[in-house]
Amino acid sequence: MGSESKFHEGFLYEVWQKLDHNTILETINGEEIAVLDCGALNQDSAGPDFKNARIRIGNLTYVGDIEIDYDYSDWKLHGHNIDNKYNSVILHVTFENKNNHGYVYTRSGRKIPSVTIANLINSDEIKKIKETHSEEKNDISGILKCSAVAENAPIELRNSHLYKLGIERFNKKCNKIYERLKEIQFLKDAGIKEPVITYDLTEEFQKREFHHKDFHSKEVWMQLLYELLFEALGYSKNKNPMTSLARKADIGFLKKIEKDGVVLQKYESALLHISGLTGALPKELDKDTKEYLEAAELHWNSIKPFYDGDYLDNNQWQFFRIRPQNFPTVRIAGGARILYQLLHNDLIGIITKKIKEIRNLGVLVNSVRSLFVIKSDGYWKSHYVLGERASTDIKYFVGASRADEIMINVILPYFAVYFKIYGHEQLTDKVVKTYGIYEQRAENQIIHNVADALGVQSKVKKTVYAQGMIDLFRNYCSKNKCLECEIGKVVFE
Question: d(Cα 56, Cα 62) in Å, to the nearest integer?
Answer without folding.
Answer: 6
